[in-house]
Amino acid sequence: MLYFFFEIADEAGLDYTPLVVKRLCAHLFDRQGSQAIIVDIFGQKGRMHRSHDSAPDIIAAVAEQYRQQADNHWQNVLKNIERVKQDYRKNQNREKGAGD
Asked: Where does the source fall among the domains of life (predicted)?
């Protein structure tokens, strides 16, 4: 999910704060993401003000603009996960057969 935000960062022109990223994750991927990772990457020590980009109407508009790209990205992620799982199973079965 975070990779997707890096892909669209320049085009979207958002002030990526942890709250903006968390809300976009929820809108685009129906997931929260890891709060610790989000804060580590997008947090800023000593920041005192909330980004105007975290407003619900802005998040909704950006999510609508990038929904199709996010859906495509997520489908590719799921395909990659499935491919890795299948490769892992094949290797496990091959090792199991060689051990007999």
From this structure: Bacteria
Task: Provide the number of structural domains found in the chain.
Answer: 1
Report how far residue 75's alpha carbon sits from residue 29's, in angstroms, rounded to the nearest whole number.
11
Q: Which residues contact 21 (CB under 8 A, 6 or more apart)?
A: 2, 5, 33, 38, 41, 42
User: pTM for the full model?
Assistant: 0.76
DSSP 25-92: HHHHHS----HHHHHHHH--TT--S--GGGSHHHHHHHHHHHHHHHHHHHHHHHHHHHHHHHHHHHHH
pLDDT tens column, 38-59: 999 988 877 777 889 999 999 9
Of 36, 84, 79, 18, the C-alpha closest to 5 is 18
Given a contact cutoff of 8 angstroms between Cβ atoms, the answer to whether 38 and 2 are in contact is yes
